[in-house]
Amino acid sequence: MVRVGAYMRSVRLALLSLALAVVLVACAPGRPAAEVPRAAAPSAGAATEAPPSPAAPVAIAASHGVTSNLIIWLAQEAGLFARNGVTVDLQAINAQVATKAFVAGQLQGIWVGGAEVLGARAAGTPITIVGIFAPTYNQLMMVHPTIASVADLRGKTIGIITYPSINGVGTIASLRLFGLEAGRDYRIVESGSAGVYQGLATQLLAGNVDAALLPPDVARKVGTEGYVELFDQATLNTSSVSASLAFHSEFLRDQPATVQKIVDSLIEGVRYAHEHRAETQDVLRKYFRVTDPTELDLVYDRLVGQIFAREPYPAVEQFPDTVEAMARDFPEVRSVDLAALIDRRFVDDAVRRGLTRY
After folding, report:
1. What is the C-alpha separation between 333 and 123, in angstroms, rounded?
2. Which among 235, 252, 283 is the end of a domain?
3. What global pTM score does this model have?
4. Mean pLDDT across the stretch 227-237?
5. Mean of the pLDDT values across residues 49-76?
6. How far apart are CA 291 and CA 296, in angstroms?
7. CA dist 192 to 4, 17, 182, 236, 304, Å?
8. At what angle do helices 196-205 and 216-223 cross, to 10 degrees?
9. Which helix (DSSP H) or strand (DSSP E) does residue 244 occupy?
10. Are residue 72 and residue 146 in the same domain, yes or no?
11. Residues 198, 251: one domain?
């Protein structure tokens, strides 16, 4: 079982043992994009610097294990980064491994959840979030058919991936809204990061847990085995730090115009998803292995209609649940200055230039 304490020890070890950054080669550019209105030039108030060399791509890691990460892969595939004059070396790495690579200096940016960013910051890595593109939990509470209400979860066993995962934080936060507290009203079992959501679904189907929050595509598969949806967390208005983009603070300081181009491209990616259904579903097929036509429609409609933020501002108010969940095993996160962890100026600049008006 993967525990946050062990994970944070590995982060600390990486911080002490690695001091040299590794520049990674660029991956091939995506196919040309369908027509998208070009971004206006960054405002005079935005920081500028000499254009980066085309031979120096920005290395960013993102998983394609969950569909909430779609936008960054869509921006790459549709050529939006290239249209804005920046080359991104987008690498498919899960959040834990990506965070370790980031701490080691092998990446300039990461697309992860709030727990990874908070953990890295608390361990001493200068990291800053510039945008949160999925501020809503994309999860459904799936339960054994004998459970008819949230009240029926009292005394039951709830499965989570890990406490500091998006899934773990969301589970505790959502059940708290209904007056249920972990340890007092229900028992938590961690499935660990191996297999991620599929591993958690396996625990549910095996009867090892009575309920679990799952992404809609995984939840629908569990539903074919007789399990039922108890509630949709996207409707509960619980703030999430999911699909967040973060950079080394030094990179942010030295190359703000490059960061602005990346943020612009991702905001345009949300618009592109709204306006190009077929191309967006192609990316879901290619990277997220969603192939069933009905499932593609369901996933697309939910992501575009409920999950993605048009104005992806990071906010301090999005973090308390994550801090609380992580502090159980890593109390140092309580000392993180959340206001200093986020930088809203890049989204703000894009909004001022009209990129979110459509």
Report:
1. 9
2. 235
3. 0.82
4. 95
5. 83
6. 7
7. 10, 26, 18, 26, 29
8. 20
9. strand 239-248
10. no
11. no
